[in-house]
Amino acid sequence: MNQTRETYGIDIAGVHRELELFEVKPGLRIAILNILGDTELVEACAEALGRKLEDVQYDVLVTAEAKSIPIAHALSVVTEKPYIILRKSYKPYMGDALQSETLSITTGEPQTLYLDEKDRELVKGKKVIILDDVISTGSTLQGMRMILEKADANVVAEAAILTEGERAKWSGIISLGHLPVFTE
Predict the structure, then answer these.
(1) What is the residue extent of each domain of the chain?
(2) Which of 57, 79, 83, 153 has the fewest C-beta atoms lying within 10 Å of its C-beta?
(3) What are the residue ranges in the chain where pLDDT is below 50?
């Protein structure tokens, strides 16, 4: 069944997108940015974020799977900095992985983030930028911070393509734009 949804138009890094609105709980809708497969938008955002991060001294980009992986990869190419993905499920090859729990607004379910044992040494004592596609409630951001603290990393900045919700709450985030939430 093809349902026409209301959209919210936004220009990000010179690229226009119509983001579909989805109800995440009664009376609350959010505009969904899905960069998976959107090469034009991902590359434009990576270039724009790369410029915004030029004055930040850091060693590694860190993000959580899965929707923000394309921006982490593209930004890594632009900045020539490595990136690490915090996983949402544990696999035996991850060894002595660190973990923290978070609650995502898009799933409404608790999620656990894991830092692979092999990646622990890549962040230990390093200057790290936390990266996400959209920062909404901040729960994934908090989960990433908790793991990186356990790994003895130094978070020097937090960045996202967009922030969402209460704009003042995200004033410290390096981003390319902001999304409102839609209440009825």
Answers:
(1) 35-178
(2) 57
(3) none
